[in-house]
Design goal:
Oligomer: single chain
Distance between the termini: 35 Å
Helix content: 25-40%
Structural class: alpha/beta
Largest sheet: 9 strands, mixed
Number of strands: 9
Amino acid sequence: MNSVQHSINEVNFKTKPIKSSGTKYAIPKVVFEKLKLNTQFKLYHLEDDFNVPCCCAFFLVDGEWVKKDLGVLKQQTGADLLIGIQTSDKFMATNNVIDGIVCCEIEQAHRIVHQLQAMLSVHGSYIAMDLNDVISLFDECPYTQYAESKLYLSDDLTKQNKQEVDEFIDKLPIRNVKNLLLYAHSIESTSLEQFSEIVKTVERKVDDSDMFLYGMALTNTLDYAYISVMYPIEPAQS
């Protein structure tokens, strides 16, 4: 399995992914701020200002979007990716405008946008992905399912959560898949060793995954810790 653990060190995101041997702290401040500006993820609604730029634009499939609106949204924001968030049975096909669909609960929509951005090194992730990895994920898996599970907060996170993580992963149909994205969100300074154990737990549950992406971030956006996965699904057309 391939694990992606590197920082962004190129402004040209259209090139092949480049693994960095340095850290975000080695990047000059002016370049660092530009990278942050150029790697914004945002959830848009029809009434929003599409001239607010981002590199990855999201929209709710349940909204009153039409193809023309979505084309304008992608063009005006300058987004490299346009991702629909599906929270009901309403189906929307991917095409030359829509790059991917994520299925989830409505209360999880903003969390998905936040965590994908947080997994980029310039936005504070402990273990980070490159923007190219996000692009590649949706290139390979245009339809994905999101699932999450809360974690206990303790000094021994791994021991307290081992059974819960095992049961959570066991319930997911992620055998023999091409792509899997794992994210861990903590509100405490969880050690990398503890997170590594969670990654190993998931690795033992997945067979022949040729692209296993993962990241971990520490933020104050929620009052609890959790892990989440995004995995490929076949689109259920309604």
